[in-house]
Amino acid sequence: MAKSQQTYSKNEKEKQKQKKREEKQKKREARKAQSKESGGGIPFAYVDQYGNLTDTPPEPTEKEEIDASTIELGIPKKEESEEDQDPTRKGRVAFFDTSKGFGFIMDSDTDEKHFVHVSGLIDQINENDKVTFLLEKGLKGMNAVQVKLQE
């Protein structure tokens, strides 16, 4: 006599899958019945002039006409300012190690620290000296270059 290919655990798993399918079907039918009773459909949400969600449509008299040509898509063009025209910055040397050849300069306008290397120096600098410098993009951020003592 040939033995059945299905084991007890396979039969149990099949029964559980069938039971889940039946429960899912019952829930689906219950939702359909409930939506028909309540007059169903998706409720609408409107946005009023202040940006709040409401369930009532806005008044047509309160609508504001907007000219589509005045809407800017994307990032607005950067206007040139005095800061862009003169890239020279002023600051104070916060730390400088002459033996290792690097340090940091504190920008007086933005209070940001910028890395400075001995190769970017024009004049010899020490800690707490007031200096002028230019910024250049480095591997790990902005670096101070063309550093010279302030007159």
Automatic annotation (TrEMBL):
Pfam families, per the entry: CSD (PF00313)
SUPFAM superfamilies assigned to the protein according to its UniProt record, in alphabetical order: Nucleic acid-binding proteins
Occurrences of domain CSD (ranges): 88-149
Chain segments carrying region Disordered: 1-92
GO CC field: cytosol
GO molecular function, one term: nucleic acid binding
Biased composition (Basic and acidic residues): 10-35
Protein name: Cold shock CspA family protein
Organism: Flagellimonas meridianipacifica
